[in-house]
Design a protein that fits this description.
This protein is 32% helix and 34% strand. With 167 residues, it is α+β, with helices and mostly antiparallel strands.
Length: 167
Amino acid sequence: MRLQTLHFTGEPLSEDHFDELVRMHRDARVMAHLGGVRDDIQTRSYLDFNLAHWKAHDFGLWVVRDRRDDRIAGRAVLRHLDIEGADEMEIGYALYPEWWGRGLATEIARELVRLGFAELECRSLVAITRPDNLGSRHVLEKAGLSYDGDITHDGIQLALYRIARSG
């Protein structure tokens, strides 16, 4: 499965992306709403988990590159996620600050929704974010998701968003 938008192209996560994930996980601005800065051990665990998802499902986390200059802009994810005992399909994204505020996260989120419905034939998709992350909440709403209530996931209070397949 390919992830490509007007401004970005996604490359499937690989072992070669470890250093980039370390860079992202050490960026306090990027990680402010994603559980905080992570050390190398946490990043290794994150990489291993997401590589295993790719191996099992042939989709998962992509490293996102700017199509103009091939610079890494962030990451995007479409993956299985256990939400209160139910297997849900999650969409997610994280961009470096220089790509913020230009509608680019919405562009990625909309493409993830399209892939989830068109390629994976999901009945619904979810996204989770911290309740105080108003920017992400706005992106999810622009991508067609609606607030579905608060949940506790991995001991953290989160806002759950959902979109159901039409038709």
